[in-house]
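Technical appendix A lists one of the benchmark inputs used to test multi-chain prediction within the project. The record comprises four sequence entries:
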Amino acid sequence: MAKQYEATILDSITIDCVIFGFNQGALEVLLVKHADGISKDKWGLPGGWIFTDESTDAAANRLLLELTGIKDVYLEQLRAFSEPDRFPVSRVITVGYYALIKKQDWTGLKPGATASEVAWFKVSEVETLIYDHRHILGVGLRRLRRRIKQEPIGFNLLPEKFTLLQLMHLYEEILGYEMDKPNFRRKILRMNLLTALDEKQKDVSHRAATLYKFNPETYQKLLEKGFNFEF
Amino acid sequence: MAKQYEATILDSITIDCVIFGFNQGALEVLLVKHADGISKDKWGLPGGWIFTDESTDAAANRLLLELTGIKDVYLEQLRAFSEPDRFPVSRVITVGYYALIKKQDWTGLKPGATASEVAWFKVSEVETLIYDHRHILGVGLRRLRRRIKQEPIGFNLLPEKFTLLQLMHLYEEILGYEMDKPNFRRKILRMNLLTALDEKQKDVSHRAATLYKFNPETYQKLLEKGFNFEF
DNA sequence: GCAAAAGTGTTTGGGTTACACCCATGC
DNA sequence: GCATGGGTGTAACCCAAACACTTTTGC
């Protein structure tokens, strides 16, 4: 990471983003290959410096857009990562974020100025990353596992319209265990967070499933009544 | 906060700690009154700067000891707080922590070098604090509410030996609703995390309750078997 | 005896679990 | 017809909720 605009950025603090996607039953993470610097040609999380007049939330959103073209997605801070030796060049603390994106909406991602490549990797197959990025990914994954059981955020990884089985497979992949189809259906439907559409699956070689969409408004109303999403 | 030792601390990053205690049925927080600087005579969270060769975890522990004399307690990072205008003097990001302490073990707390007073306040009665400290306290409280339902951390706020009713009152105070005594007993006992001691309450004007202690070792073993603390 | 909290018992009902089974569609 | 996934039905069981009731101790 080359420092530029000395006067307008904070030194010693950066942002790093764990960007999750879901594709063909597998949880994936978006990585970038650095174009230069001490980590040239190595894969890591997209990240960068913070301007002096923006919050870390704003910086994370900006960097996401700059580095990958992605915007307006679910984004939440993980925490600060601060081991003194985490960055070999100087003492830098990073604030980790994780994002959930509907992968289908973002085809043709382009690497930003400081990256030579940007690509999706299956989370289960990621090996070494630069600095402590592997560790940050692990923290992001644990956070996702925890959150998905308590808040209906899984929908951020699926297309607008999805089938109940797709949703179940998402839960199975993230949580790491198998579920019972009939029971999953009833459990999720009983919450009244999903609206069944008039539409059905197409081009499948079996009975077409009903498509559903998630209702954020309904969720808000339920929350106000003291509803508690639990899975 | 006066900056000293320019060469050995990180500028633009600080630590702030939300220290919770429990006393007579009320959740309390430890605050310090600043001895000088722009916030002289105002109450805020204990905090300070980070040395270049220590992690934020290490800094939080060190500051806790320096500012209040407290050490070896439950301490967990909340997250980074980074609004550009949160600190009026310069651009400073703070990493928030929260601690749970057995208040009885730490009587006679003494203010550190930069504080003129240190005192406990009922969380429900805290009003204005310096900078965004009120906000950080709120985030700490939400975190505590969430965690206490998922991990057996409540014991860190109670004496080594406690009664089941004390524990229930702790849950009621933190979660903000009343519970049923018989049902609470059975629920917590069925988890096998508590050991009944041969000892009983003393000097109470009613039937003396059995004292219990929490077993961290048992909890570890249960965790390994896939046990999931849920409240 | 009375107050106060400790501690036990019991009924009820909702919800999870486990699994059997029928439906629709493409090949 | 058969494979594949969509979708419904149901019995067993667990467990939380609600509340009645007994026990122990100090005054």
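Chain B is about 25% helix and 30% strand. Residues 207 and 216 of chain B are 29 Å apart (CA to CA). Comparable benchmark entries are summarised in Table A2.
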